[in-house]
Amino acid sequence: MGQRIHFVVDPQGWCCMGLIIFVWLYNTIFIPKVILFPHYEEGNISVVAVLCYYFCSLFCIASLFRASVADPGKLPENPKIPITEREHWELCNKCNMMRPKRSHHCSRCGHCVRRMDHHCPWINNCVGEDNHWLFLQLCFYTQVLSSYTLILDFCHYYYFLPLKKENWDVFVFRHELALLRISAFMGLIILCGISRLFYTQLMGIFT
């Protein structure tokens, strides 16, 4: 399974990835600032909860970059076709190259990909034979981080003890409700979308 660097020049993909990174950065900054650190200082939560959030956030962004730059299974220009497998290869009518069956041509990337599942604009890369497992990791960690964020948003208002002191001169505390509503909205949208995609991917693998 190759792990070559693969970079797609696609402005639309860059915009989609930029949006994902913005959502990740937003929650990574404001959730600890508004919820985790204040409640930790007053003894409502343990340091484990804070560390777990940062670990989930780190795994999520790392899997995003790994899935976006990993080679999905790009076919070389002059592939060496084993004699025993020649009958399983076919000619691509778009790039005029020989390719194994179950390969597909990606119009955005401009080449054929082995066992291509789809081109995902959110990672600005194809999902194919060599990076499919990285894409599944990204879906899993995104679900974990989104779920954790939603749980913290809920617990902040309905479970944790009210904070005894807050610095209302700081922007994040003066706009706490709006910031957390935005966080909850983004977390819910991403969780629903990724959960559906993750389920579809697993069913495709099993069948």
Automatic annotation (TrEMBL):
The domain comment in this protein's record states:
The DHHC domain is required for palmitoyltransferase activity.
* Name the record gives this protein: Palmitoyltransferase
Spell out the molecular function terms from Gene Ontology: protein-cysteine S-palmitoyltransferase activity
Name where it's found.
Membrane
Family annotation (Pfam families):
DHHC
Q: What is its EC number?
A: 2.3.1.225
- Residue ranges spanning the membrane: these are 12-31, 43-65, 138-159, 179-199
Q: Name one GO biological process term.
A: protein targeting to membrane
* Keyword terms of this UniProt record: Acyltransferase, Membrane, Transferase, Transmembrane, Transmembrane helix
GO CC, alphabetical: endoplasmic reticulum; Golgi apparatus; membrane
Q: How does it sit in the membrane?
A: Multi-pass membrane protein
Q: Which organism is it from?
A: Thryothorus ludovicianus (Carolina wren)
Q: Which family does it belong to?
A: Belongs to the DHHC palmitoyltransferase family.
PANTHER family in the cross-refs: PALMITOYLTRANSFERASE ZDHHC21, ZINC FINGER DHHC DOMAIN CONTAINING PROTEIN
Q: Show the catalytic activity.
A: L-cysteinyl-[protein] + hexadecanoyl-CoA = S-hexadecanoyl-L-cysteinyl-[protein] + CoA
**Span of domain Palmitoyltransferase DHHC:** 88-206
